[in-house]
Amino acid sequence: MKEIKVKKSRNEDDNYVELWKVIDPMKGVPQYYGRYTYKDEGTWYYVSDPLGYCELDRAVENDVMFICCDDSGKECVRYSNRDANPLPKFESVMKIRWEKICKNIDFNKENITANFWSESLNGESTMSVNQWLLSFMDPDLYGKEIAVMCGYDEIWTGSWHSKEIGYEDIPETEFIYLGHRYQFTKVTMKHKICGVEWNEFVCTDSPHVVSKEYGIQTYGYLGNWYDKTTTGTMFDKRTARMMVQAELQKLYPKENKYSKLLFVSGNYCYQKSYEDVAKELIKNELHKNMVHDLISHLKERTQNSIFVSSNENRNKVKKLYPGIYGYDYCLW
């Protein structure tokens, strides 16, 4: 059986492929191989453009034995595509280890992927710690700082305005992966503008490593803790929108799951989703007292300006507003 010594060159990418580099390659041997890690499958592949897109080509023959080494070239595990995968990906090992020790830790588990897509598509954070931080983003208190951010929530909650002020090793959490020692560390964070503090639980080297320029070196985010009894004067966009949207659905019940609303504004009638109408009503006023006031008086404020989209209500709008224009032909 042919043996090839490799060490990991790059962690799993968006296509679930790890890149492994050949140690002391012989002439005619590829410099890199890919390891497909979806659901910890662990199949070895030849790859095209390894330093770029890293596209999988074809599976490596079963008679090729891969010797997986640490950074110093010392063997850690070996297997071929004929064998069951003995090397789960790092993320899986880290999460299993965290699940074993986190039962005695008070923390909030966050969905980082869901938050990424929500912020990318809607500009709304789904992370509870971000929503908590945004409750302190009061323009009455920090108007100048918020203006510099152009109102972007992710700048307020991101690394631009937070700093690490403390580190605490979590006892008995060390584990070894490919010869390297890791552990879990609690990092105390402080917001540079509003001054609130919270904790983040991360996977780090063991012992943890902190640089002056970049802060603590981390390999995974496990969760956070913050004082839920203390909040600011604001709602985050997502929470405010969902509250108003829920009230709209009570006042103007959907006829089916595809139902939309007719929204009269000025000389135009728009057909919009409940979500978009909620955003229109809130505008940029996210103070908690103002959002609660909007919800409390939503019925009288929207009377004869919001209707469930239907032929009957289209005709009603035409009678109430004879000269109105229908955007996207919603009235015709």
Describe this structure in words.
- The chain has ten helices and 18 strands.
- With 332 residues, the protein is an alpha+beta fold.
- α6 (237-251) packs across α7 (274-282).
- It has helices at 90-101, 112-122, 128-134, 139-148, 153-157, 237-251, 274-282, 288-296, 298-302, 311-320, and strands at 2-10, 17-22, 32-36, 43-48, 55-59, 64-69, 75-79, 162-169, 175-177, 180-191, 197-205, 210-211, 215-216, 218-225, 261-265, 268-272, 306-308, 325-326.
- It has three domains: 2-87, no CATH class; 112-225, no CATH class; 237-329, no CATH class.
- The strands form four sheets. The protein has a seven-stranded mixed beta sheet, with no helix packed on it. Strands 8, 9, 10, 11 and 14 form a five-stranded antiparallel beta sheet that branches. The chain has a four-stranded mixed beta sheet with strand order 17-15-16-18.
- The model has no long low-confidence stretch (mean pLDDT 94).
Largest sheet: 7 strands, mixed
What is the element string, with H for helices and E for strands? EEEEEEEHHHHHEEEEEEEHEEHHHEHE
End-to-end distance: 74 Å
Radius of gyration from the alpha-carbon trace, in angstroms: 27 Å
Low-confidence stretches: none
Q: Averaging pLDDT over every residue, what do you get?
A: 94
